[in-house]
Design goal:
Layout: E1 18-22, E2 26-30, E3 34-39, E4 42-45, E5 48-53, H1 57-71, E6 80-82, H2 85-91, H3 99-102, E7 106-110, E8 113-114, E9 117-124, H4 127-136, E10 138-139, E11 142-143, E12 153-159, E13 162-163, H5 175-182, H6 184-207, E14 210-223, E15 228-230, E16 239-241, E17 246-253, E18 262-266, H7 282-289, H8 304-322
Antiparallel strand pairs: 1-2, 2-3, 3-7, 4-5, 6-7, 8-14, 9-12, 9-13, 9-14, 10-11, 14-17, 14-18, 15-16
Helix pairs in contact: 1-8, 5-6
């Protein structure tokens, strides 16, 4: 895996691309038919993009997403066309000159109309869920058995959707509100698919020595083949319809089951009743919490040791899950 750091890209129309959106981590470009998603080494925490980058992070996120998109294809179709750089170049030849910058960190995907919710599945009592449980005995209003400890495994995975905020923080919502936003058919479909993916991924990851404590998914619908035009969105993976007609196919999109979108814990050191060692960016969050930062931009700079260890954690997660690096 390349060790070069990519914090920002600047592909142009001469490369056959039109700039589409720059998110917290991803730079997104479009062609007439596709979106090109470049995952940089930027890292965000508490909804703030840090000034520091994490070496190899973008390549890890892309490689893991492609791995999981393939592994769960029996549960759902996805927006991924290919993450193979040579295959992408066969469709956009001008990108060949950007191989050093883009290889292993770029995906070619279908354009989708993204549902305006984050689909979160929790299998363990951690993070904001633990904080709510200690006060109210619930997670996002869902009642849980009394006497659970921090990081205990839940009796069964629970589905806790949230809004997708363009500014500020996402907000947890009830499933009933999700139904009002999307309609009961789509809401039930997203909930069921999200839980099925989590269950399959949790079982697989556990066999590789990793506990997936929770994760979030983004879903979209493939638009009609004509009459569409791209527009910016918080996730950067959305199209606006000129008409109302859509193909109807619901697909999994964005990233999936990565250290940015999930809590990964090493199974061999798992011990409920306390916070866990992690393979995800919780390590960075924990450092920032120790600085008394008020979570308003700009964020404190990260010490070199925190940057190095974070990179190592991401790479180790990929190595354990995929068997290569």
């Amino acid at each position: 895996m390349s060790a070069n750091i990519v914090r920002e890209t600047s592909l142009s129309q001469s490369d056959g691309l039109q700039f589409f959106n720059r998110g917290k981590v991803r730079d997104i470009y479009q062609t007439k038919d596709y979106l090109l998603i470049v995952t940089t080494d930027r890292i965000s925490a508490f909804d703030v993009v840090l000034s520091d980058a994490i070496p190899q992070k973008g390549a890890v996120l892309t490689t893991l997403s492609a791995f999981w998109f393939d592994k769960i294809k029996d549960i759902t179709p996805t927006h991924l066309i290919t993450a193979d750089f040579n295959q992408i170049v066969s469709k956009i030849p001008s990108l060949s000159k950007h191989k050093e910058e883009l290889e292993k960190r770029v995906m070619l995907v279908r354009k989708v109309k993204v549902f305006p919710v984050e689909c979160i599945v929790r299998g363990y009592l951690a993070g904001s869920g633990w904080k709510e449980y200690t006060k109210q005995g619930t997670i996002c209003g869902i009642e849980l058995p009394p006497g659970l400890r921090e990081c205990d495994r839940l009796p069964s995975p629970i589905f806790t959707p949230s809004t997708k905020a363009s500014i500020g923080h996402d907000e947890n919502i009830s499933f009933d509100k999700m139904v009002r936003l999307l309609g009961s058919k789509d809401a039930e479909e997203l909930k069921n698919r999200s839980i099925k993916i989590y269950q399959k991924a949790h079982q697989y990851a556990l066999s590789k020595g990793i506990i997936i404590a929770d994760t979030k998914f983004e879903w979209g619908r493939i638009p009609a083949p004509n009459g569409i035009s791209a527009t910016n969105s918080p996730s950067g993976v959305k199209v606006a319809l000129k008409g109302e007609k859509e193909s109807g196919e619901i697909v999994l999109c964005d990233e999936v089951l990565t250290p940015d979108s999930s809590r990964f814990w090493p199974a061999d050191s798992y011990s409920p009743g306390r916070g866990q060692v992690s393979f995800d960016k919780q390590f960075v969050r924990d450092y920032l919490e120790s600085t008394n930062w008020d979570k308003s931009p700009p964020a404190p700079e990260l010490p070199e040791e925190i940057i190095r260890k974070t990179s190592e954690k991401y790479i180790e997660a990929q190595k354990r899950l995929t068997g290569n690096c």
